[in-house]
Specification:
It contains 18 helices and 23 strands. Strand 10, helix 8 and strand 11 form a beta-alpha-beta unit. Helix 1 runs parallel beside helix 3, helix 1 crosses helix 9 and helix 11 packs across helix 12.
């Protein structure tokens, strides 16, 4: 079995410094050097997972192949590394406490008093080492959510302290991401916030091995010397992370700074193979040198917080780069769309995407947007709820079923073209009715979706509760909307398209979850291509 090494990434001074991007960038460089790497996220909140959190609270809920509802940082991990994550890659305080309490109820602690130390910390350490113990990875990078000093993070920091002692310093190190702010009035960068952050971390018994300093301005040699002196690290262990034009620049910036070299040295691993980032930089070249621009309307109800649709926006970046197109997203709140203003708001768009979501708010605006796309031959992609709204719009305006609806929004509807499956109807627990994770889908021969994927059987990730109601399938297909993708085992509809339309596809699954830098999702690539062609007509 491999002697797995561990890298812990903590954050100081303030949140939103980009621990996930630094972790993913380091992992990418180590992967380029020939090491097998994975990343996990420890989230301090007491929710079991972000599945029931409002997107305004936590951004997008990212879904893994095995059906785990996780933090959006796992999306970054997959997009950078091009390998899937799993339930083991995201741990929450809620899950930790639930597991410990379940063990206590079963009598596994033999009547002892259950405490944060050792019981909670033991559970955290167990979860941290789960991935390492598989023997699949040379290095496990663990990002600890929150900011050093938060009460919620203390058990995690304590667990790291114990692991550093148990594993030995050649097998586990700590990277502390911190902020070196620029004070315009003084005209200089200030190191004091970093000093205080490191001091707080050291008070918990953890001394950082490497400092990664977020900054808006170049950090001078003098400042690096000062940080090294006051933070008890070597000068070469002070790494600058200057603000980048795009997150995809960060691996190159970290390569220039030698972050991977320092990490390998501290973990006593050979660093003979140098990272080239050839494919990565080919992607960046396409992304930064577009030959055309297209306007895509993203219709959703959480558009004020762009992170609510993070995987979709990143999938557009990947698809845009390969098409050498700058995809400009117009963020359109579905609640503000009406019959009267839709033509004015949507008239200059080259493509329309109706985004996923839950609940009744804003659905009539989505339906109006879909009607406009269908009637005006604008390329349309509906994802999850977006696909369901396309079915409702078609049923109302083409079939003439005026009160067609989803039983999610209207429990009394007499025409639930979107409905719960029969076996789900008596389940009251929200999570219990969800179809989550990877499900197979067979694509119909001769269909546009089959041409896009260029294969008959695909596997895509799901996160939804309601389904296309097969009772209406016959009359919907007769009117011109065809089910071109189905799950063979359940016969549930996964894909709909309108063959008479230049490009009109709705998918029940979430293709955005599987788009990566090195493997842009074919559905997004083709949608961007169709939107580009529309812009030229």
């Amino acid at each position: 079995m491999k002697n797995t090494k561990y890298v812990f990434v903590t954050g100081g001074v303030t949140s939103s410094l980009g621990k996930g991007i630094i972790a993913a960038s380091l992992a990418k460089l180590l992967q380029e050097r020939g090491y097998s790497v994975t990343i996990q996220k420890l989230d301090p909140y007491i929710n079991i997972d972000p599945g029931t959190l409002n997107p305004y609270e936590h951004g997008e809920c990212y879904v893994t192949e095995d059906g785990a509802e996780t933090d959006l940082d796992l999306g970054h991990y997959e997009r950078f590394l091009n390998i899937p994550t799993s339930q083991a890659n995201n741990v929450t305080t809620g899950r930790i406490y639930q597991s410990v309490i379940d063990k206590e109820r079963k009598g596994e602690f033999l009547g002892k008093t259950v405490q944060v130390i050792p019981h909670i910390t033991d559970e955290i350490k167990h979860r941290i080492q789960l991935l390492g113990n598989t023997g699949d990875f040379d290095i496990v990078i663990t990002e600890i959510g929150g900011t050093v000093g938060d009460i919620e993070s203390l058990p995690y920091v304590e667990s790291v302290r114990q692991l550093l002692w148990e594993l030995g310093h050649e097998n586990a190190i700590v990277i502390h991401l911190t902020l070196v702010p620029y004070l315009a009035a003084a005209g200089e960068l200030k190191t004091k916030p970093t000093q205080h952050s490191v001091k707080m971390l050291m008070q918990s018994g953890v001394s950082p091995d490497i400092l990664v300093c977020r900054t808006e301005h170049e950090i001078s040699e003098a400042i690096k010397n000062k940080l090294a002196l006051f933070c008890n690290v070597k000068k070469e262990d002070v790494i600058q992370s200057i603000d980048a034009e795009t997150i995809y620049d960060v691996p190159n910036l970290m390569l220039e700074e030698g972050l991977d070299t320092v990490v390998l040295k501290k973990l006593q691993l050979p660093g003979d193979k140098q990272p080239t980032l050839t494919e990565w930089n080919n992607f960046l070249k396409g992304f930064k040198n577009p030959k055309s621009t297209i306007e895509i309307g993203l219709i959703g109800k959480y558009v004020e917080l762009h992170d609510a649709y993070k995987s979709i926006t990143e999938a557009f970046i990947h698809a845009g780069a390969i098409n050498e197109v700058d995809v400009h997203i117009n963020w359109i709140h579905s609640g503000e769309l009406t019959v009267k203003n839709v033509p004015k708001i949507l008239k200059n768009l080259n493509g329309i995407l109706v985004a996923p979501g839950f609940g009744e708010r804003g659905i009539e605006g989505k339906i109006e947007a879909i009607k406009y796309a269908r009637e005006n031959n604008i390329p349309f992609l509906g994802i999850c709820l977006g696909m369901q709204m396309a079915v409702i719009e078609f049923s109302r305006n083409v079939l003439g079923i005026q009160d067609a609806s989803s039983s999610e929004m209207d429990k009394e509807t007499i025409h639930p073209v979107i409905d719960l499956m029969e076996e789900q109807k008596n389940i009251t627990n929200y999570g219990g009715t969800m179809r989550l994770g990877a499900w197979d889908c067979s694509l119909k021969e001769g269909s546009k979706i089959r041409h896009i994927y260029n294969k008959e059987l695909i596997s895509e990730r799901h996160r939804h509760r309601y389904e296309f109601n097969n009772d209406y399938l016959g009359q919907i297909e007769k009117a011109g909307m065809i089910a071109t993708g189905k799950n063979a085992k359940t016969n549930l509809v996964e894909v709909i398209e309108i063959p008479s339309h230049p490009w009109f596809i709705g998918v029940q699954y979430h293709p955005e979850y599987k788009s990566t830098v090195l493997n842009p999702h074919p559905l997004f690539v083709n949608f961007v291509k169709a939107s580009l062609e529309h812009s030229l007509t």
